[in-house]
Records
---
Amino acid sequence: MGNTAQSKIAEQTNKALPQLLPANSEDSRLTQLLRPYLPQEEIEVIWRAYEYSFNAHAGQTRRSGEEYIMHPVSVACIAAKLHLDGPSIQAALLHDVVEDTKSTLVEIQDKFGPQVAKLVEGLSKLDKIHFEDASQAQAENFRKMLLAMSQDVRVILIKLADRLHNMQTLDHLSPAKRIRISQETLDIYSPIANRLGLNGIYQELEDLCFQYIHPLRYKTITKAILSTRGNRKEVVEKTLFEIREKLTTFKVRADVHGREKNPSSIHKKMIKKHSSFSQINDIYAFRIITQDINDCYVSLGALHSLYKPIPGKFKDYIAIPKANGYQSLHTTLFGPFGMPLEIQIRTESMHHLAEAGVASHWLYKTKDAHVTQLQQQTNQWLKRLLEIQTEGSDSLEFLEHLKVDLFPDEVYVFSPKGTIFNLPKGSTTIDYAYSIHTDVGNSTIAAKINQELVPLRTEIKTGDHIEVITAPLAKPNPAWLNFVITGKARSQIRTFLRSAESNDLVILGYSMLNNALKAFHIDPDSIKKKHWDKLIHDYHMPSKEAVLIELALGKKVNVMVAHQLTAIMDGGKKTINQSKFLDVISIKGSEGMAIQLAICCHPIPGDPILGFINKDSGLIIHTHDCPSIRKFKPDHDRWVDVEWEPEPNRLFNVNLSILVVNEKGMLGKIASVIAASNSNIDNVSLDQPDGSTFATLNFVVQVRNRLHLAELIRNLRKISKINRINRVKSVA
């Protein structure tokens, strides 16, 4: 048995090189992948492209020491697995010749035609142009590539194949480069693959990024999966047998497969649930491939009669497909021995689409008038990219918008007429308005969610029915930039503001800056011309008005400008008396501003919050439901939109009221649980009515966020003598 396995490995090793090179032979890996779907004449042109690339890269090697030609051939093989057309495969073989050799685009066009030359141009970096820094160069390269993609999606499909092979061969680079490239892949390329429905490439990129960014975690989880494989084999086999038997009973013909989840997806679940590997039971997922859609729903009924479904864990992506065209029924069940089972049910065509996405049926040379829903959605997305690009010249801004639009999690909402809109998770009513049409967004004055008027900054949720109220003379509010998240909304708001009268923008900028200065106890009139001149010089701006316009457009943060001006006034020394302010934390929407957390409601990360500018105290942060803010509500000019940063590195105070049985040692028990939950006690007091068997302990405890607080409360509830625990938000 061992000898057989070893001989197989040896055979594969011996075949590896001849199978890949030379690529222009009948038994090469590339030819074998092309043969099933391309005619002989196209394959011969591809062979010519290989020969040209081979000669152009002659003498060049990769960091691993292997011939450079191995890379473009490997990229072409990945592209061939997606069944891309002949010009795409040629471009994959030639994608580096313009960058790395003496070959020119003119030469490529002469030999292989304008179509191939256009694809190669879209894939080439802008190495010949000088940029101020690396981030600007990277942003401009992404911008160029994505604009080429908006004209021809094959550009990004080849680029994803290129990036996948680069990620597969990262071992020979330094650890720092591995992490940088992996992070770039995770930020841009992996989400694009997901957005285009290329699930196979997306999953592999995610796993490779995880492997290089968190090598120890990857090794640990991989080892744990291998060690549990034998233990769970019996459970998986039993589950497969029972599912197949049940489907046969329901007369459903289907293929049933069980598969291990990827290390990256298991890691995500561990992070999300704050669990260890041993607590993650559902490392296996099951997939059912049926003949037609009716069988999908019959299979679902069969499974729900076999195992109990877990409430709230069912999603129908067949009725409402994802934006990338993905369709499946998802359900989670209590399987044998109480093990949760994640099951996907889909048809053969849905499965093919889930793996190849837009590449599965992108039409390049068709005269068919029928355009699939997926193609329409992809076209809309590409059109949106073009709109964003044409609205501004800043490549970093364009990249920012793109990253937002690649948000993987989505919400599905309904218009008054029942049309379904999908938007990134965290979108607001304003994002929804701009997704309908730019003019609708620009003229929005109010919104209703499920027939109730809500603030425009309200976050929308799946299933919401949304109605936008517009007015002919309405116009975008610059404050919207603090809470909208979609690239289209941000770019359109900025475009409108840029086109507004510059005088109006200057006035608005003055107002925003003055609010920030007053919060720091600085009189705006104390800022002299010489201070402004120094600031203008530091910012490389033409005038004071230009700085104020940047403020109005949201390109600069008012509090940062205020900080700089006060520092200039004091000759570079710190001018803000920190003793006047309890806390200085960074909060999205008011970065760098001195901030006090309101002692009446003690907001913590995870709470919906509002910022109130107090002339004497700076910016005060309250929770949305804090009773004390009602008296300030009418004063709109003093409210600031703020959000928590993802992970503020500090502890926050929370008031807890705990009703306990009044007996000896209770305070000590509670204190030890609080300490064991990695929390601190800032203050404690006791209320005990005369003669009562119960007492109320009032704690001020310190936690990281709402999740940490929830964990603390769960641990406290394990103490049998505790009757009730309340978080108090209305302390006078």
---
Amino acid sequence: MNNNDIPIYKNPDFPIDERVEDLLNRMTLEEKISQMLYYSSAIGRLDIKEYNWWNECLHGVARAGIATVFPQAIGMAATFNPDRIYEVASVIGDEARAKYNEFQRQEDRSMYKGLTFWTPNINIFRDPRWGRGQETYGEDPYLTGRMGVSFIKGLQGDHPEYLKAAACAKHFAVHSGPEEERHEFNAVVSVKDMRETYLPAFRDAVKEARVEAVMGAYNRVNGEPCCGSKTLMQDILRGEWGFEGHYVSDCGAIRDFHENHKITDSPEESAALAVNMGCDLNCGMVYEYLKDAAKKGLVSEEAIDRSVRRLLKTRFKLGMFDPEDRVPFNKIPYDVNDCEEHRQLALQVARESMVLLKNKDSFLPLDKDEIKSIAVIGPVADNRSVLLGNYYGTPSKYVTILEGIRQAVNKDTRVYYTEGCVLGDVQQSHWGNPARTGFSEALSMAERSDLVIMCIGLTPEFEGEEGYAANSDGGGDKLDLSLPGLQRELLETISMTGKPIVLVLTSGSPVDLCWAEENENVRAILEAWYPGEEGGTAVADILFGNYNPAGRLPVTFVRSLDQLPPFRDYSMKNRTYRYMESEPLYPFGYGLSYTKFKYSNLNVSKKELFTEDDEDIFVSVEVENIGGLAGDEVIQLYIKDLEASVRVPIWQLNGVKRIHLKPGEKAKVEFILKKRQFALIDEKGECLLEPGKFRIFVGGQQPDKRSQELTGQEVLYEDIEYKGQVVELEY
């Protein structure tokens, strides 16, 4: 049979749009509807195989067996290194294809076996109580956008014809808790805050990264459900941004229309509303009612065709209807999963992610030749779950913090270990054993050791998605910022021995560290996040000086919740570093190093510009390692509008570069700024470039007083001025 004898949809020499249309025209209404549920049915007469759209790869291929587990997303954000995230996502894409190839060979087409991944989560981590904040890239729209774009491009690949895998930007659009109310919650947000904070990362994902899919959130936004919102789905996503991919509901979100939001009266009405607004794929079962909805005249076959057309196009782009040897990604072997090369990348990302928050009198790095005994104390020291976060796969090997330390010290160094306390309980056991029963052993070990490494913090059981964080009192969210159970008391008890303490913290979000920051015996604090399969090795590498930390906080560590508005308030007033009115404990963008860097010769190509021109600004700075150790430096560029006509951020991150310098080495770092980066969003949601003065800051941190106090370093700045008239720019 030659190509002229086969249907157009089976002929890879025809354009995809023609192939899609040919296949669509051969399908009955019932067959079309069967393709709009996440468990799409097989259509034997057309040789369409069954396909399950639901898959996850937040920080590695999830829920489908052996895979490389990278640091949780919030940890990857702390690298401030979009290039590294692209590399990570490319590896994840390879492993995803390798698994898919093998599953196809085994004819296993069940959940988590496909190529459509509901990743990344690019919601803004606006409040530290939100349990799912760990899945995001932090609180800043610019950083979230850069990380999201890099991840999407890496996962989808750069082949001109085929996608390696399909990414999905979620959860569109104003979504960050509370978890236990997400099925009925209405997020009330101004158009200014929406376009200034909540939408930019999605815009970048669509317009720059060309993300294949977008997932709608559970909640309503200003009264409209996100999976049935004309404003979000039609006006903005497809109208303004020209999104051409498919839209998928969060799981059960369309059922929420009639059961929880009460904006429809029946499953038929809910299904019709979602499809009419442009939700193509139902994670759920409400679209089983679409045939009845069509009979009632609630939805047209034309609207159904529109959705099925988009879904089929994604499958064609993934090569699912083409000969196996025509799709290059089909050759990726199964053995790449969690191979040594990928494990080494996981280790490197873990090292880059960790943030040194305190290092009194340069206590770190430790000299292992001078240490005869170490007490490793705490309930997360030998805990595997803290390596994984949520939405994870299964690594072939786990390296806990305790194991990493044991591997790093000299053979004759004594390493004591005890949990000291359990993670969350404060009550005596069923058999009458007191909750503090482990304190005595912890004290004994501390007293016999040269130093103590306290390993405490959170685990995914205490923060995460509704229904998964089993020990959360807030339905997945945190009620406060305190350490669970007796961990704080254990830390205070050990500190009374007078032994120097290094605190290693695991978490996916900020916790209260005020006491530890102020305590003299706590010499150092390292935020390790949920660091992935090689997390223990990475922690030990930093503690013993095999790696110089350079991670930066992608979220603000507040001193207390008193500094924040109520959790349910979606206004950005007094939220995140961009609008926070009080001084935090640890600012966004902050992190220490074992060496020192000097900034000099800040140069701005032009200091006077005109709003009507499209001229770029070139910014350069010289960075020199003036310390005694090689290390990375994260160069951050912030812009402050000095004369804005409306409320604008205090300053806004608009550039980031991570570089490596040897002692005495100097590098010139350059940024290119578009005039769009100097524009503001007014109260009507319009993007305006106003004439006026702007300040450009460049340094290793924010230009705030607290960062300067913690690091002892200032940032450089130069002022520029735009002249002319107010100009409206494309959003």
---
Amino acid sequence: MPLSKLKFRPGINRDRTDLAQTGGWYDGNMVRFRDGYPEKIGGWQAETITPYVGEATKLFVYSVDTGAEIAGLATTKKIYIRAGTLLFDITPIRVTYTTSTTPSTDNCFTTNTTAGTEGQVLVTLASHGAETGDFVTFTGATAVGGITAPQLNLEFEVTVLGGNTFTIQTAGTATGVATGGGTSITAAFQINIGADTSVAGYGWSAGTWSRGVWGGSSVTPAIVNVRLVFMDNFNNDLIFNLNDEGAIYYWTYENTFSNRAVLLSSLTGAIAVPAGTEKTLFAPSGHLLALGASAYSETSTAGATISSITSATTTATVTTGSAHGLSTNDYVYLFGQTTTAYSGTYQITVTSTTTFTYTLLAATTSPASVAGSYQAIDYTGGTYDPMLIRFADVNADIGPKPEVWRPELANSAGFLFVKEGSRIITGANVRQETLIWTDTSLSTLQFLGTAEVFGLQLLSSDTNIMGANAYASVNNNVYWMGTDNFFIYDGRVNVLKCPLLRYIFEDINRQQAQLVYGGTNKEFNEVIWFYCSGGATPSLTIDRYVVYNYRDDIWYYGQLNRTTWIDAGSNTFPLATSGGYIYSHENGPNDGQPLGAAPLAISSYIESAFMDIDEGQFYMLTKRVIPDVDFTASQTVNPVTGATLVPAVDMSIAVTKFPGAETQTTDVAGATLTRGVTTATGTIDQYTNQVFIRARGRQMNFKISSNTVGTQWQLGDSRVDAKPAGMRG
């Protein structure tokens, strides 16, 4: 017989048997298709030096006005800013204790001399509120029990023993049992860490932090969700929130990266900021959205009299008849004053237990002839509603005011409700609209520019999404992974036909659905989803991916741990996170290891479905293959050692007598029978003209694979020398 081209349909199909998929590809890993031909994907290089702590769940890149590119990186334990190759910890501080607070930090350290734990220090702080794994930073401590001051004045991860005690592990060695540390200790606790994975359970700590009675047991099963963080930028600054009714935080860019993020509600002028939300993002109109949010509420304390009000230009000073109990940035409503310019609602700065100041709308120097009264106003007591959307103000002249959430006639802050579903899952911007997913529906939020500000329109009442990050936007279209299908929104909601549907959704670990992360690789027309595999032992970390090539309308998949992904844009390469590092992808042919370690090979392969001759009534005999493989972009020199590299792939042909299952258990004793598959393999490099591969069987498949450093390959139209070799029953 003449030579036959080994030409296959692009993409991988696993929803049919391998023989039924004759003429197509059936399996692969670390492979994509370019113009219909398979090739090994590009490699990656570590972009950061010091590893981050926790599992990364969000990577957000933006440019500041200097042109510099920075990235917000959120993990289950910390929040970072990435600048160049460095990571800066901006995790918010939950609470700071000193010797003057309750509890006091006065001499809170106790050392011990127990063998093997001489560096461990017991810390006693009543009702400290920390959880095991939280981080605390001490300053101002003095030596105690042989542990030096520099060994104490550091950041530590705590191990909680009880509500009043925890331990830290120092680098010192105690010389005796002692209690001390001095009377000038400051203990700054970072916000509580989150879960690395979603866990179902009963009992103490089951459920979301701050829900229910502290220390109480749950009566019904609770899902402790993995901690997700959602990010967006406001000019140079970063805004983010924690999921599951989490608070909203604000980080100010100062080009030093030494400052930590603070609560948005703590900013000057902040008013009625939602106490908790599921997700924040800026709408195309500039309004900061809170999807699933604590409702707006306004409660006031009983009125209290004012002794006097004086002023200096625009600063008014209030003296109260007794201790006011207020805090800086609180709001008060002043009424009954003469002059009336002193009356109104103002944000205050506390100057003493009986005085506070606020800024007048216009300058005056005359004291109030009638001081009147005041009421403290609380805007944070609203009940959380999982179907509520709130939006902050946008000023027509100065633009977005993400700190102003109180609806007024003079601003555009407000709220509305999603009607279809029981809770908002996530949202994403596309064109000039914001898509809002609930657990059962998809709606579009559009800016109207009227008194209503926004309009909400239902797009589908039969749509869902696997997780809050399971979508990606490209070319004004949004793609997402649902709980049992893939979807596209291009002005309408449509289901994507996927030949891997059963293979993916029967394998995914649904308990870790929140970890699913979608992204794009626009250079190759790809939408990619990373997920945790299921099976007999479900993975608790991301280990798989599936790709949709939207130009060619084909699918393929593989195995790779990437917990976040962001496409190339202002960054030269796509960026992703794994194992403590940020990696730039499509950057060389290798697995670029961190810290300057030698690169590793990326194991890749593509395998065809089985095919036969003349409906399978003839055996076939293969004799040789004439390869067509391109090694462009391969490395011929090891970038670390300088050794010569010879890029190569293995080409193999497998034959079998019958298309039965590859392995099947048939007897009671559990003996496993394996079908007779014979594989013949030859190594192909750029100088190989032909390779002699001799194999005989009823069905045949074709495979190309590589596992060598420096190899980058693309398969063309190889040819095989095969002929009928008799009939067999």
---
Amino acid sequence: MEQDTVARVPEAVARLRRARAGRWAARLALALVLALALWVRLSGLDRPFWDDEIYTVYDASVPVSSILNSTATPLYYLITKGMLLLGQGEALLRMPSVLAGLAGVLALFAATARLAGPAAGLAAALFMALSTYHVFVSQEARFYAVVVFFGLAALCGLIRLCERPSVGAAALLTLGAAGAMLTHLSAVFFVPPLLAAAFAAVVLRRGGRPLFRSAALAALPLVAVAGLALVPFLLSPDRLHSLAVVVGLGPAPDPAKAPQLAQTWHLSAREFFLDYLRRVFLSANTPVEAAVVLVLGVLGLGRTARRRPLVALFFLCVLVAVPLALTWMPARHKWAHRYFVFLLPVLMLLVAAGLPALHGMVRRLLFGSPRAGRVCAGALACAGIFVVAGAQARELGISQASLPVTDLRAAARFASPHTKMGAGRHLYCYLDFDKSPSGGTHIAVPFQYYLRREAPGAFVPLVRRVEGMEGLRKLRCEFPDTHLWVVNCNGENAEAFAGLCHFTMPWSPNRWPDLDFGVIAPETVNFVEGGGFENPDTMPARAGNVALSGRFEAWRGIHALTLSKEHGGYRQRCEAVFSVSRPGAAEDAPVLDPATPHVLSLMLRYHVERFGPKHNDGVRVLLQTMDGKGAVRRHELFRGRYYSPWRRLVFPLRPGANLPPDVRECAVVIALENASGTVWADDVQVEAKPAATFFTNGARPGPECP
């Protein structure tokens, strides 16, 4: 007997070592899957926001009290508000979703491993890591990745309760379910069946306790979740009525006041099962892929039913019973696949759980040849993993390559310096040839958001949609004294569009290769020649140490005028003088009509390195005038020191203040005085206007208005 025991010791040690090695291998595999999941979710995270993400930022920017009083699901908005304290970057505000997505992959591994073993857990985690839809929601500043994580946490609690009821399992279930309910209303299709299954699990495993006591203990998670989920409604009872209206339980609103809510929709069963489940969530777009996931899913459901019948019943409820019920229940909103995002991990779990079921079935069929059974079973399981994971990876590659990247940030950065010129003088619009009611919203909302972000506190009016070139011409005539900032969403009529604009600016990358941006300024007469410096032969009337710089230094176009001087040279001042003239005026007439308001504007950039001893050392912008008696005066309009990036300077020219009433000559002087450094100037113009317009480089013809 002792000899047999001693003989078995090495075998036991070998088994222990194999088990330990297997655990370490599983941990390493899980770490690699999580690293893969994190890598694909961080890729392209800094792309511009789209409409729904912008609405999230808007809703989270209000005070906390307003968030609690305005939404039944405030949790994600509170998280976003906390992130806004750190910054407004796209990658930063998407990081909660990224982390929730990563945690969701780990939670799915835990849930699947408890139901079907660690190998199935690794397969489910791999499927989720490569899932096109889960990657998308994990890269979006929206709540769907968070609600998936909370749903999986609650599912882990349910599985543990079915194994052995405990306080920890009930707490995990409660916190997960409450978190899901407070994150998004779609949890209402997921949480009630889950709580019912948990209630049944606790009651059926009484452990010698009376039925009444077991039912009371089982009801505690239900009461806790319901209480937490109802808190937002208690803060604002009107929301309960609004929710009832949305799900179709309340009276229909007046179509004249709310035409969208007055309509009713039904969930399409064919769309749900074929499009949502098969194509969107499982990426099974070929007959082979669809057959594989169907077989594995059925096997996984059967395996779950044998081990945890209540969990399998819960899966059937959320996969079949709830969707079928929604096919006849009217709702006052359109159904979309994102409302069923909680089904994504359930499908991944069932398909992964089908792999060990398939493995065991093949081994039993080939019992007569154990070795062949193991080889065939392993080969089929690996083939199933390859087909499912390959489908996910293929669709993920296609999705990542075709993400909408309509980057309007460059256009917003260009337009933002001009938004502070006064309310009512700017109108932002997009030229759209799509006749659908929602066409072009992918332009309007982001453009408005990035304008606000680039110029905080500036007046940004609503963005208007214009259909075609004729609509743009009518809008130009309707607002003749307004800057029209136009985003052209269509490559048609590109030449006509550019002909209407005083400035056009293409940018890339874009979903639409011909997308460009143009500015139609109010009509003006420019009294300064060569203010744009694009013609190398055009120079100021008098200049010292002046050069035309290249594209790197220019504000726009090819060249900017540059003043540069070394400290200690013989020149105390280097300057450029721009003569102002009124085309067509008589020789004895004033160069500027005293009865007409005028404005000087220019773009200026400077870097002063050293200063001389005088108080007015540095960069100066002056107005030099000569009156009818020949008296010359210089009026200082601007003084700068040290450093400034490109900035727009605007100076009203007022007779009797900085203009003689009988001015005969007038010039704009840009000087670097008693200092060393460099000054760049561009877009210098004097206009017969009370407020500055966009630089036009000459007179512009007026529009042909009806």
